[in-house]
Structure formats: C-alpha cells, structure tokens
Write a structure and sequence with these properties.
The chain has two domains: 2-185, Jelly Rolls, CATH 2.60.120; 190-300, Arc Repressor Mutant, subunit A. Helix content is 53%, strand content 16%. The protein has 13 helices and ten strands. The strands form two sheets. It has a six-stranded antiparallel β-sheet.
Length: 300
C-alpha cells in the first residue's frame, strides 16, 4: 500500500495543484494541498470520503480528537467538522488529500446490484473502533481515477464506472457498515442535513429557530422534532457545540487564549463561554487544554 500512496503523491504533484481545494475534470473528485497548519474540509452538500495522501490531519470531534495518517480516510457524517489542521506540513512537504463526493442514489444503485448476502452481513459486524484505513483495491481505483482526469475520450464513461468501483470497495471493505450507516443517516435526515450544513457554515452568526424552520418549509415544532431526531440535539444546542469545539481547536492548535477563542467563535460574554465550555467538556478551558496537551506529550 505504501507504493500506491507514493504513486498517488507523485501523480498529484505532477498535476501541479495549488494551495487549497482543487477541482478536477471529474465532477466528484477534488484534490487538496496545504502547506500551512489550518485546512478546510470539503463542503457538505453531499456525502464524501477524504483520503489523506501525505502528512497527518488532526480533526476535533465532539467525542474527542482523531489523527488521520496517509492511507486513512474520513467518512463524512452529519457531525463531521468543517476544518482541521496538519501536523507537519511545509511548503516543501505539503499535506495532500483527495475527496470523492457521493449521492445517496449512487450508493443505493450499487447496493441493489450486489449479489449474495453481503449487505445483510454488513450490519452484523461490530462497529469498528479505529480510524478508517484504505485497502489496496480502493487505492488502485482512486489511482486509475486520477489517471483518467486528462483522458477526455474515456472520461465520461469510465468515471461513472470507476465511481461505482469506489463505492463497492467501500461497502465490501472493513468499514462498509460505517459507510452505509453514514449514507442512511444522511438520507433519512433529508432537508435537515442541508440545514445542519448551513449551521456549520454560519455557527458564529446569530439566528433563530423560526429562521431555520422557514428555510425548511416546516412548522417550528415539526422542524425542531425532526432536527433533534436526525442530529441528536436541537439547532441552537448544535450551534453552541460547534462554537465550543472550534474554540477548543483554536486554543489547542493556534494557542489562542480563552478570551480570543470565545470572541472568535461568536460569544459576546467570556464568562458565559466558560460556563458552557465546562458544561460540555467537564473542565474549565484552561484545565481542559492543558490536560489534552499533557496527554499528547505523554504519548510521544
């Protein structure tokens, strides 16, 4: 697998992508290059996977902090973060990644074409507890996709075929259950998924439940119930959690102080920020950040 990752890195460098997100001739395939610490994750109009090709990506989730090394990938979910940071990226040795977008219908189509009892068996598997690791077959398909990028004669037909291969390899791989569960939850969320995506992009702003319900063309009570069912919390709780997670990231990754972090994520009262932070993480901001740093140092 190491040779395949080296080939992917070489192909991306030969294409000569620029800093940030780079689109390709294949509508669902994007490439990323970052020589700085902060990175933006894919926008979440559609489900996606993000494969790390070089360097290490650190993401902050409500359940903790997770690092993704080369060959590991993120499966998007309703609660996926919008940003993260690299651990070792420089101008000469940047962070490289590839994302592939999906429509739920794409995944459903492949599932319907799979013979045998694989789909049923997937949901008997225990939930994986580790970061998602690519397999050789998946990397080979992605490498073929990148080779196809400049082949206009085959692009239209083969890109659709290869996308189905990617989906099949994800389903048949060790994290097929997790991938399908993500697709199912997004499909069931429907309009709520789009509203949740909007909140993620605008969590610093002030908005009301009435505004969100109007965007969804739902009554206030129906919207709140459906949002809480899909996301596990109310919209304003979701906004607060996003603010606190981002503030934690700012203090850990950028060494922001408590006041700057609170103001940056949209709080007007630092004392309110500290109360909310303690309620979510169980510790004051200073103590929480210090304990996490101590844990990282102990693990190195």
């Amino acid at each position: 697998m190491e040779k395949l990752l080296q080939s992917l890195q070489l192909k991306i460098n030969q294409i000569g992508i620029t800093e940030g997100k780079n689109t390709t001739n294949i509508p669902y395939l994007n490439m990323y290059r970052y020589s700085q610490q902060n990175i933006d994750l894919p926008e979440i109009q559609n489900p996606y996977i993000l494969l790390v090709v070089s360097d290490t990506m650190r993401l902050h989730f409500s359940t903790g902090i997770k690092d993704y090394s080369p060959g590991e990938f993120l499966i998007s979910a309703i609660d996926s973060p919008l940003s993260g940071h690299t651990l070792f990226a420089t101008v000469d040795s940047p962070f490289l990644a590839i994302s592939i977008d999906f429509l739920v219908d794409d995944v459903t189509s492949v599932m319907l074409d799979i013979d045998g009892d694989l789909p049923e068996k997937l949901f008997e598997i225990e939930d994986p507890s580790t970061t998602q690791q690519s397999n050789t077959k998946l990397l080979e398909v992605i490498l073929r996709l990148i080779d196809m990028n400049d082949n206009n004669n085959e692009l239209s037909f083969m890109s659709k075929h290869l996308k189905r291969e990617v989906i099949f390899n994800l389903i048949a791989g060790p994290y097929g259950k997790l991938f399908l569960q993500s697709m199912i939850s997004i499909q069931q969320a429907g309009t709520i998924y789009n509203i949740n995506s909007w909140i993620k992009s605008n969590y610093k702003e002030t908005f009301s439940m009435e505004d969100l319900a109007e965007q969804s063309n739902m009554s206030l009570s129906s919207f709140h119930q459906k949002f809480k069912t899909a996301v596990g919390m109310g919209p304003l709780q979701c906004q607060k959690k996003l603010r606190l997670l981002e503030s934690r990231r700012l203090m850990l990754d950028l060494a922001s102080n408590v006041t700057d972090a609170a103001l940056e994520v949209g709080y007007e009262s630092v004392s309110q920020f500290i109360r909310d932070y303690r309620r979510l993480f169980g510790r004051s901001p200073q103590k929480d950040v210090q304990e996490i740093r101590d844990c990282f140092r102990a693990g190195t």
